[in-house]
Design goal:
426 residues; mainly beta; Immunoglobulin-like; six-stranded mixed beta sheet; 3 helices
Length: 426
């Protein structure tokens, strides 16, 4: 009788969990509605940062987003463990979760004195109700409790620290005299015994937190328990240029990049000065956020909920249309992949591209890029490249021990200068 009751309870719990799962999910960073804005996942208490926390640490992550529908909605979130390729792992929830999925998003606030009405939601995790017990890749899904419609998917990682890392950035010897690329030199020293590191260890290297489908790398050589990743092309990245920046923290005192600002009863429109394709031909070094953004309001005391949205008009001078569609890209629009992200339109009479993007008051890094036929983005013609550019590289080491059914994140390493929230003043 006791066994029958236990079986019923487990069956009921599993059925309820399956019923509550959101539908039509993806395994990459994505906003499923153009009404969801200013989504950022970061270490709690920081202005910027890569979404990483460490196993058994007291450093939670924070997810913040605005809903421009304006009214209150019941949202829930769930966490899913993935393998190194971001496919669901072989583990069941009970094996990697502490607590239960499908928790409510309980923290919210309404905008105050804004022309564009929105509701801001935020929560931190892991928390008292939901945590993880194993390192690895994870997805967090936020969805509507009413109809299980997903609204946000974000990636984050939980890391063990099992490897010593020696890494550096060098000019790419294969890039020729132009010196446009950067190459990552990397060796690992495991603190645990690994029987076959050539098959048990893989590494992902990503630039400025932009998740791309670059192949995972296995060690090329193992000498005296030191794993060497002596690659050339596989660890080479285009240097790019320092990010362009936009400061719309104040509508009363617009920054120099704002040509005109118009305020109406129901909206604010910001018209930027026309930028050029060739204005960044030389390398100019200055601090940036490596593509991130900060929501901030310098006009009001309550800068969080009194921050308004504006229709920001971008203009890019070009002697003619480029071969592929041109996009404005940054973390604010998932690097050109967010719902509602559209290409710029070229005006042959005026000789420039233009587009309009809804942005919250704040400070933004961005750049221009062409969307290629395979769906990738290329900034060679719009921005150029230099090996001197300051970039951050996130090194993620995956390790699968014998007998385990999942891949740990055995080490996370930031190579470059951490972004502290410093922004370039007007």
């Amino acid at each position: 009788m006791i066994r029958s009751v236990f079986t019923f309870v487990v069956t009921f719990f599993c059925a309820a969990s399956l019923f509550s799962q959101p539908k039509d999910l993806v395994n990459y960073d994505h906003d499923y509605s153009d009404k969801i804005k200013s989504v950022i996942i970061r270490p709690a208490g920081s202005n910027t940062g890569f979404p990483v926390t460490f196993l058994n640490s007291d450093q939670p992550l924070e997810l913040v987003f605005d809903d421009l529908n304006g009214d209150f909605k019941y949202y829930k979130y769930r966490i899913v463990q993935c393998d190194a390729n971001w496919n669901p792992s072989a583990l069941t929830e009970i094996e990697y979760l502490q607590g239960f999925n499908d928790q409510e998003v309980r923290n919210y606030a309404y905008s105050v004195n804004t022309r564009v009405v929105y509701t801001q939601y935020n929560f931190t995790f892991p928390n008292d109700l939901l945590g993880v017990t194993k390192s690895g890749n994870y997805l967090i899904h936020v969805y509507s409790d009413e109809d299980n419609t997903p609204i946000i998917t974000r990636r984050f990682i939980v890391s063990d620290q099992l490897f010593g890392v020696t890494a550096s950035i060098a000019g790419d010897i294969q890039a020729g005299s132009a010196r446009e690329n950067q190459r990552i030199n990397l060796t690992l020293s495991p603190s645990v015994r690994i029987i076959d590191p050539l098959t048990q260890v893989r590494v992902a290297i990503i630039k400025n937190g932009i998740w791309e489908n670059k192949p995972l790398l296995s060690p090329r050589f193992v000498r005296n328990d030191v794993l060497t990743f002596d690659y050339v092309n596989e660890t080479s990245f285009e240097g790019g240029k320092e990010f362009r920046f936009l400061d719309i923290r104040s509508f009363r005192r617009p920054s120099f990049k704002v040509e005109n600002l118009e305020r109406y009863d129901d909206r604010t429109e910001v018209f930027l000065r026309t930028e050029r394709l060739d204005e960044k031909s030389g390398h100019i070094a200055y601090p940036d956020l490596n593509g991130s953004f900060i929501s901030q309001n310098l006009d009001n005391r309550n800068d969080i909920m009194e921050s308004d949205y504006a229709m920001v008009h971008f203009y890019l001078k070009s002697p003619g249309p480029l071969p592929n569609p041109v996009y404005v890209m940054g973390q604010f629009n998932e690097w050109g992949r967010s719902e509602g992200s559209v290409p710029m339109q070229y005006d042959s009479e005026k000789g420039y591209y233009s587009t309009t993007i809804d942005l919250k008051q704040g400070y933004y890094d961005y750049f221009y890029a062409e969307k290629m036929k395979d769906g990738s983005f290329d900034h060679t013609r719009t921005e150029g490249n230099s090996y001197e550019t300051s970039n951050n590289y996130q090194i993620i080491v995956y390790y699968k021990a014998y007998g385990e059914r999942y891949e740990r994140v055995g080490q996370y390493w930031l190579l470059g200068t951490p972004t502290s929230g410093f922004i370039k003043e007007n």
